[in-house]
Amino acid sequence: MKSEKSLYRLLLIYAVSIVTLFIVKDDPAIFTYSLFALGVLALFLALRIGDVNIATIIVLVALSPLAELIIFGFGLVDLRSSDGDRLIQNSIIFGTHFVIDVIVLVPMTYRVEISKKLFPIAKIKYNIADSLLPWVQLIGIFVSVFALVENYLRNAKDYDIAFFFYSFSISGYIVYSFSAILITILLAMAYKDYYGFKTPTLLSRSSKRL
Predict the structure, then answer these.
(1) 205 domain-assigned
(2) Based on CB atoms within 10 Å of each CB, which residue in 34, 116, 171, 177 is the most buried?
(3) 191 falls in which pLDDT band (50, 70, 90)?
(4) What's the half-sphere exposure (Cβ side, CA atoms, 13 Å) at 88?
(5) Please, which pLDDT band fits residue 204 given cuts at 50, 70 and 90?
(6) Confidence (pLDDT) at 4
(7) Entry pTM
(8) Is 203 contained in some domain?
(9) Looking at residue 197, what DSSP letter applies?
(10) Backbone angles phi, psi at 197, to 5 degrees
């Protein structure tokens, strides 16, 4: 029992530290690393209770930011552009985001079917994430498409529009944050069922008997 409390205390400090780090420093890299750290924590907890459904969802959600981190973070695609190559370079950047999101959308849409083949003895079932996350992924795809069209109009046709250019990172924050919140809710519900936690209520015991 003492070791269990120590583990939960350590995980709580770990999670709070990550969230605090993200709040005090508004930086895309910090956001990405914080997201991965929280993802690792959530994956550890999902595996601890043996919930394959949540574990596979976490892996799928992490695929897009992980691919972006590898491609952009390690310089495989340069995020910098000059006046001469802005059209081409921005097209490569937004196009890369588009391709990544489309590729991830496929296993995310068929998560249950793929999981049943990979884990035949596990209890694979649909949950709310299977309904919502593909639509969330589609939002990212649409934003990439609009950003590509806007980039062409701005840099090839000289139209003064840059809405999706400036809101591209913000839309990414929203999409990944929503996914993280959804996973947290699913994990909390799974933990409640696994350990038999009682749901708090304002009713007194005498009221329940009635």
Answers:
(1) no
(2) 34
(3) confident
(4) 4
(5) very low
(6) 47
(7) 0.78
(8) no
(9) P
(10) -65, 140
Residue 208 lies in a domain: no
Cα(192)–Cα(25) distance, integer angstroms: 33
Indicate whether 130 pLDDT > 80.
yes
| 70 inside domain | yes
- 105 contacts: CB under 8 Å, gap ≥ 6: 134, 137, 138, 141
- The CB density around residue 155, as the number of other CB atoms within 10 Å, is 19
Average pLDDT over residues 87-97: 92
Q: What is the CA radius of gyration of the chain?
A: 21
Where in the sequence is the domain holding 96, given as residue range(s)? 2-198
| Token pair in block for residue 71 | 């491609």
What are the two backbone dihedrals, phi and then psi, of residue 177, each rounded to the nearest 5 degrees?
-65, -40
pLDDT given for residue 200 in this prediction: 45
Q: How many whole angstroms separate alpha carbon 179 and alpha carbon 132?
A: 9
